[in-house]
Design a protein that fits this description.
4-stranded mixed beta sheet; 21% strand; Glutaredoxin; alpha+beta
Length: 109
Protein backbone atom coordinates (compact mmCIF):
# COMPACT_ATOMS: atom_id res chain seq x y z
CA UNK A 1 0.00 0.00 0.00
CA UNK A 2 1.28 3.45 -0.79
CA UNK A 3 1.76 5.84 2.09
CA UNK A 4 -0.91 8.49 2.38
CA UNK A 5 0.45 11.98 2.03
CA UNK A 6 -1.05 15.29 0.97
CA UNK A 7 -0.82 14.28 -2.69
CA UNK A 8 -3.97 13.22 -4.48
CA UNK A 9 -4.35 9.56 -5.42
CA UNK A 10 -5.90 10.57 -8.72
CA UNK A 11 -5.73 13.60 -10.98
CA UNK A 12 -8.55 14.14 -13.46
CA UNK A 13 -7.58 16.56 -16.22
CA UNK A 14 -10.15 18.01 -18.60
CA UNK A 15 -8.61 19.13 -21.90
CA UNK A 16 -11.04 21.49 -23.61
CA UNK A 17 -11.02 24.58 -25.82
CA UNK A 18 -10.28 27.81 -23.98
CA UNK A 19 -13.37 29.79 -23.01
CA UNK A 20 -14.52 32.38 -25.50
CA UNK A 21 -15.22 35.86 -24.22
CA UNK A 22 -18.96 35.41 -24.75
CA UNK A 23 -19.12 32.17 -22.74
CA UNK A 24 -19.96 33.97 -19.50
CA UNK A 25 -19.95 31.49 -16.61
CA UNK A 26 -20.68 28.52 -18.88
CA UNK A 27 -17.03 27.45 -19.21
CA UNK A 28 -15.12 24.18 -18.90
CA UNK A 29 -13.18 25.71 -16.04
CA UNK A 30 -16.40 26.30 -14.08
CA UNK A 31 -17.64 22.80 -14.89
CA UNK A 32 -14.35 21.35 -13.62
CA UNK A 33 -14.60 23.40 -10.41
CA UNK A 34 -18.15 22.14 -9.85
CA UNK A 35 -17.00 18.54 -10.35
CA UNK A 36 -14.06 19.02 -8.01
CA UNK A 37 -16.42 20.37 -5.35
CA UNK A 38 -18.82 17.40 -5.74
CA UNK A 39 -16.01 14.83 -5.74
CA UNK A 40 -14.34 16.45 -2.69
CA UNK A 41 -17.49 15.70 -0.69
CA UNK A 42 -17.29 12.03 -1.69
CA UNK A 43 -13.57 11.37 -1.91
CA UNK A 44 -11.94 14.05 0.25
CA UNK A 45 -8.60 15.19 -1.13
CA UNK A 46 -7.91 11.92 -2.94
CA UNK A 47 -9.15 13.20 -6.29
CA UNK A 48 -7.98 16.45 -7.85
CA UNK A 49 -9.40 18.09 -10.96
CA UNK A 50 -7.61 20.33 -13.43
CA UNK A 51 -8.73 22.13 -16.56
CA UNK A 52 -6.17 22.41 -19.34
CA UNK A 53 -6.74 24.21 -22.64
CA UNK A 54 -6.31 22.23 -25.83
CA UNK A 55 -2.93 22.99 -27.44
CA UNK A 56 -1.47 24.28 -24.15
CA UNK A 57 1.97 23.13 -22.96
CA UNK A 58 0.24 20.57 -20.70
CA UNK A 59 -1.71 19.27 -23.70
CA UNK A 60 1.50 18.66 -25.66
CA UNK A 61 3.06 16.90 -22.65
CA UNK A 62 0.39 14.16 -22.83
CA UNK A 63 0.94 11.94 -25.89
CA UNK A 64 -2.36 10.08 -25.35
CA UNK A 65 -4.29 13.34 -25.58
CA UNK A 66 -2.43 14.71 -28.61
CA UNK A 67 -2.94 11.35 -30.33
CA UNK A 68 -6.67 11.39 -29.53
CA UNK A 69 -6.99 14.86 -31.13
CA UNK A 70 -5.02 13.72 -34.18
CA UNK A 71 -7.50 10.84 -34.50
CA UNK A 72 -10.38 13.31 -34.54
CA UNK A 73 -11.60 13.00 -30.95
CA UNK A 74 -13.97 15.73 -29.89
CA UNK A 75 -13.40 17.84 -26.79
CA UNK A 76 -13.42 17.51 -23.93
CA UNK A 77 -10.76 14.85 -23.61
CA UNK A 78 -10.64 13.67 -20.01
CA UNK A 79 -7.69 11.88 -18.48
CA UNK A 80 -7.23 10.11 -15.17
CA UNK A 81 -3.59 10.08 -14.10
CA UNK A 82 -2.63 10.80 -17.73
CA UNK A 83 -4.74 8.03 -19.31
CA UNK A 84 -7.62 9.04 -21.59
CA UNK A 85 -10.93 7.89 -20.08
CA UNK A 86 -13.44 9.95 -22.08
CA UNK A 87 -13.57 11.74 -25.43
CA UNK A 88 -16.24 14.26 -26.29
CA UNK A 89 -19.66 14.81 -24.79
CA UNK A 90 -20.37 16.18 -21.36
CA UNK A 91 -18.30 15.57 -18.26
CA UNK A 92 -19.50 12.20 -16.99
CA UNK A 93 -19.47 11.72 -13.25
CA UNK A 94 -20.30 8.02 -13.76
CA UNK A 95 -17.32 7.39 -16.05
CA UNK A 96 -14.94 9.14 -13.65
CA UNK A 97 -16.33 7.22 -10.63
CA UNK A 98 -16.03 3.88 -12.48
CA UNK A 99 -12.43 4.63 -13.44
CA UNK A 100 -11.61 5.64 -9.86
CA UNK A 101 -13.06 2.34 -8.62
CA UNK A 102 -10.77 0.44 -11.02
CA UNK A 103 -7.87 2.14 -9.21
CA UNK A 104 -9.33 1.13 -5.85
CA UNK A 105 -10.37 4.69 -4.98
CA UNK A 106 -13.77 4.43 -3.32
CA UNK A 107 -16.04 7.13 -1.86
CA UNK A 108 -15.72 7.93 1.82
CA UNK A 109 -18.03 5.83 3.97
Amino acid sequence: MSQHNSQSDAVVTVFAPPASECAGTNTWENAVLAFEHRFAKRYGNRVRFKAAPLFSPEFFQNPAVTEAVQQGAEAPIITLNGRVIQRGGKLSERIIREELEKLGILPNA
